[in-house]
Each structure stands twice: as structure tokens, then as C-alpha cells.
Amino acid sequence: MSRPVSPALTVRYDGSTRSFAAGNDVVVGRDLRADVRIAHPLISRAHLVLRFDQGRWIAIDNGSLNGMYVNGRRVPAVDIADGGQLHIGNPDGPLLTFEVGRHQSAGSPPPTVAVPIAGRSGPTPAPGRPSATWPAPPVPPGAPTGRPPVQRQPHASQPYASQPHMTAQSRPAPVQQPISAPAMESVTVMGPAAAPRSGGD
């Protein structure tokens, strides 16, 4: 006997449509890494999480400042029904519309990543399942890495040898960090010129 297929979730916002398979969380927010990105001043970086749980899709406010609204009322969580709608940021804020189930136009939904919800504890991802953590950010130039430094010699025929030329094949992989982890925010490093001076220089 085969298990029934969990319904895909299709999210519509401002003319764009994204579909997601059940099994992992979908992040909605203004962060560049959000699964559904909404660049709006009322929207938090990871504003809501859409999750398939116990046979149904639910929308959960991820501790956002401005919340989510259904029928003009702010709610912390709501079951997502086929054709359901909710506003985020305020009662007249950006509108999300949902479709639940297998849709021929959806194709193969992209995989999603499990994301912890702010202020909540819940089940941890099963072994072998992706989690919301990514590799550590790259080490800043000049910081010890445990590897010997690489000596590069400029070529006489290249006036800008210190600036590498980027091609489609040589693009560096994007740095991925947790979507909402204040402790992981980048730190500005000040050089000696930015240090306060003492007295009579």
C-alpha cells in the first residue's frame, strides 16, 4: 500500500507564483535568501514560516514586528486552505494567496529547508535532512587560516592583475548564513586609521 502524496503549496504574491513540496519549511520575508521574498519596509527578514504539519499547511508568524493578518485581524498562526489569503505587515499590507494540492502548472516543486521558528522549540530535522544552518562565513583577508599564504605574481601583460576577471565558470559560490540569527550578523572591523587618537598627535 502506498502513502498518499502530501499536497504541494503554491504561494502567489504580486504576480509571481512559487510552489513548494511538503516536508520542509518555507520562509517568507524580505531577506535575499527567503523562499518567497517580499521587499517591503513592513516585512521582517524572516517574517513567516509556512509549514506542512500533521497533514495540513500552516502559516506561522516568526516573531515579526508587524505580524500577519487574516480578515483584518492579527493572528500568530493560521491553517492554510486552498484559495486562502493573508496580509503581512498590516491589515492592508502585502497580500499572499495560497493554493493547496497538486496543480498541473506547478511542475516539480523546489526543495525547501527546515527553519527554526523564533522563540519556539520543535522537532529537529531527521538525519540526512537539510537544516537551517549553513557553512561559516569566509575568513576575512589577512586573518590566519591555517594554510600557508599563496604568492601571486602579476603578469606584465595584465595591467589589473590584482583584480581577477570573473567568468560564468569562475564565479564564487554565494555565502549562505542563517536567515535570522542576530549572533551571526557580520561585524565591522576597524583598521588602525579608524582607532581614536590619544592626545597631541
Helix content: under 10%
Distance between the termini: 83 Å
SS content category: mainly beta
Mean pLDDT: 72
CA radius of gyration: 23 Å
Total DSSP helices: 0
The portion of residues forming beta strands comes to 15-25%
Give the overall silhouette: globular
User: What is the annotated CATH architecture of one domain?
Assistant: Sandwich
Q: What's the level 1 CATH class of one domain?
A: Mainly Beta
What strand order characterises the main sheet?
2-1-11-10-7-8
Q: What is the element string, with H for helices and E for strands? A: EEEEEEEEEEE
* CATH fold-level name of one domain: Tumour Suppressor Smad4
Biggest sheet details: 6 strands, antiparallel
Instruction: Write down how many β-strands occur, each being a DSSP E stretch of 2 or more residues.
Output: 11
Regions with pLDDT < 50 over 5+ consecutive residues?
Answer: 104-108, 122-135, 154-170, 180-195
Short account of what is shown:
0% of the residues lie in helices and 23% in strands.
Structure description:
The structure is a single chain. The chain is mainly beta and 201 residues long. It has a domain at 9-106: Tumour Suppressor Smad4, CATH 2.60.200.20. It has strands at 9-13, 16-20, 26-29, 36-37, 48-53, 56-61, 68-70, 73-75, 77-79, 85-88, 95-100. The strands form 2 sheets. Strands 2-1-11-10-7-8 form a 6-stranded antiparallel beta sheet, with no helix packed on it. Strands 4-3-5-6-9 form a 5-stranded mixed beta sheet, with no helix packed on it. Strand 5 (48-53) and strand 6 (56-61) form a beta hairpin. Residues 104-108, 122-135, 154-170 and 180-195 have low confidence and may be disordered.
